């Protein structure tokens, strides 16, 4: 471990350090209001590290450290920015929830920070064992956080998440073992070289089949994290039971971390040679299934958290379009799919956070979580209704929101890499999704309110909502900055 | 001048729109008049900056072009946004922000106490911003965006009193009719989009106005392409500037508040069509067929609308038809190649026409009605309104030396002396228009201000062709309007007298050089050509105008030959029914052809196929959830089992398929 390694770990260490500090402070401080400010300070330090590293990466190229297990490049830093943003917003939105807790307020924030440090490492790991540990570092705090609520449903959610996450980790680990058996190494780039040099021979039972099995199992393991069909069954129960800010966090940051690792592994280790066409089709299939199942089931939901849970499954499907769109047939378009994934993730993070923050602001006062509880919100709280409408319109993919550009870009990447059919499925699904997104808008603006008392979001939730909904519109009008960032990050992922 | 100053012209009213929409209306609606002050301040800022822009353009040869900024890149195509500041833009900026400023101040008085005051000023700010954006943009694509935005604002403001069915219907009509023309504009843009490679091969951007000029001059586009492209753009202009055959929406648009009519439906938005043709003038010049079309449509409209203006009883509708007619005159001017004269008439018209509307609003403020049959004798009660209305009418009629005379005379001279059959024909049409214009303008003046007062709103039972009182000023209280309304009228009145001679004097006039406007506003790529003052045309047009005024005096002023005696009933009927154009559109085309036939088919398709599909999807949505919900039983074992099954399924698919 050299000084350089520590420098590379700056963003993640800042978060872990702040987490430990929070646990200490929780014991010492009587007044807990300072805790969120400490979290935000820690995130700022982490952000400073990420920005410094970005400068270094721009000048000197990607930085590799800790015996080649960690790689800081534009790709990992793009995700670092994303995680810091998402974490900051979620912490703001958590404030009212945490204030109601009797104990463990410091632990709540500390666990959020531990999880986010795990996500950062996940996005920069280039070696299977490191990757696996980072994944666990992400999953365990999230399981604890899911159980943080005061009611039975929350505890149930935590246990379910823990068990199924352990199960899928086992699947992932088994897949890694098969790949190791085939290649004899755990370093992604070495795996990539071996796979590229070995011709695929389907006649030997334990030859290429073992590799393919490993690939499928790894895909399944990540499929759990990104909540793709058929590995999505945990989503609705956990999302419904977990405290809503944690649900929001799960739906964006945890999913983005899954996609980061997925892209890194598949483009580095399996990105060359004939194997690519195999998994490209696999993900295309998973994508189509996720979109369709997510949307169809979402239509039948009345509980807004369950509805959004299925909506996130559908969005996992849309994002998988970009993963599938790395086609060997069009090498000049190698990075357009990954760029689409990154861009979509960034847009989706802001959008989905805004949607969940809206739900937090409303359910905190109404108590109900069903669509009919949103009736007449347009009259009771026009700004809140406006922000929620913006996020729903963005989820649906209509301008002037970031969601429109994200869908345009990612479906466009499918068309260019010869997956036009998948783009068609995606567009049809987007149309279907209008049914349930607009139902909420209709309830807010066209149904009479049950009572007339105006609704106010608490200041911290309001701030978080304003930032996320503002981002949805800002990047919806001026998307090119974000798009360029995503393209730079994806280029490095593709060439790695 | 820096680019940021130009952007600021646009963003000041945007800021007041946002401030009113997001802060004043939701939270401070009790102090809604704040919205009015915000708007006035923002527009005043834009006006001052527009003067700065005008000054900067003066010392500059050709357009001030800042490099445009990339906005969105999709594949090989980049949408760019930028500002093109040339003499036309500078003049339009001053007109738009100047008239807007006068109208906003006037609105403070006219709209006082209206429950929707904040909404009104929010729309007005948005309109001013969009209109300024329209004239500033260097990209046709952005022009189109603002073009639709002003259309939207027009819709919102015509239907401002949406609880009145007539206003709601008029708003819809305006929106739909102009949309027909906009389709042409859109098709022209699509043509440019699909032929962008022709442009990009030369390093040009198909949507950049300057590049389009270059492409036309360099002959990149074939003759047919130019004609079709121009026709598409002209279709948009016909809709927006209410030219025949899409003129039907403008008279109905008078259902909106009167200051709206003054700003949007007289001075600025309706002139956007003329502006657009002027903006891409090299394109039109490249095709003689296109120029003839523009000239003939303009010439016909100017007479056609004037005849209808002669028979209307609603003072605002008279002015509305007059607007259509005058816009026709501007189109005619562009069509015969008289670019400078056309823009000059746009410039002068903006002031005196806005003034006429403000006068009509002031009259309504006092009498509570727009029906001229119920007015009369108002000059005794409203001297300022009378004086300004008289000035504006003289200017409209083109009487020497009022503003309208100077520009109208240039248009007539250029048309009559060009020596082309088409130009001569439209020149004669314009002369007929001069007589008719003078007649209806003074008919309105005499009916409103002379004679005896005939009762105002209280006498209004079953009278008037547009129903109830226009703006809720129900009762007649005959008195001059408050100062906040009179001051803008007087300011515009001074302009209606002087804007012609001061802006384009025949000789040096104090600090203003000779033919300043004509030197300044020259067509893109052209240079100043003096139009020699033609005494014959000037005398002829003035005689015709005076004759029109005289006839109006005989019939309506002195009542020596009352209208009832000499009216030819069948002709009157045809004109008063607006040549049955509304009936043609509403009954035959919309009601019969479109609604019964086309919509019948679509309705069947919609009910059976679309609804069927939608219901099927809904059914699937409701019922496909059931088996999935059965699997979603909350048991962790089942979930883990599903993961295992999923993996197995994927592997089996691979094995079978391999």
Give an overview of the whole structure.
The complex is a heterodimer of chains A (496) and B (658). Chain A has a domain at 275-496. The model of chain A has no long low-confidence stretch (mean pLDDT 88). Chain A contains 20 helices and 2 strands. The longest helix of chain A is centred in the middle third of the chain and has 32 residues, at 152-183. The two termini of chain A are 23 Å apart. Chain A has 496 residues and is mainly alpha-helical. With 658 residues, chain B is an all-alpha fold. Helices cover 71% and strands 2% of the residues of chain B. In chain B, helix 11 packs antiparallel against helix 16 and helix 15 (315-335) packs across helix 18. The radius of gyration of chain B is 28 Å and the shape is globular. Chain B starts with a helix and ends with a helix. The model of chain B is unreliable at 462-474 (pLDDT under 50). Classes of the chains: A mainly alpha (496), B mainly alpha (658). At the A-B interface, helix 7, helix 9, helix 10, helix 12 and helix 17 of A face strand 2, helix 25 and helix 26 of B.
Structural class per helix/strand content of chain A? mainly alpha
Given helix and strand content, the structural type of chain B is mainly alpha
Indicate the proportion of strand residues of chain A.
under 5%
Mean pLDDT level of chain A: 88
Percent helix among the residues of chain B? over 70%
Can you count the helices of chain A? 20
Please trace the helix and strand order of chain A, writing H or E for each element: HHHEEHHHHHHHHHHHHHHHHH
Strand order of the largest sheet of chain B: 1-4
Instruction: Quote the average pLDDT of chain B.
Output: 84
Unreliable spans of chain B: 462-474
- Over the alpha carbons, how many angstroms does the gyration radius of chain B reach? 28 Å
**What sequence of helices (H) and strands (E) makes up the elements of chain B?**
HHEEEEHHHHHHHHHHHHHHHHHHHHHHHH
Shape of chain A: globular
Distance between the termini of chain A: 23 Å
Oligomer: heterodimer
Number of helices of chain B: 26
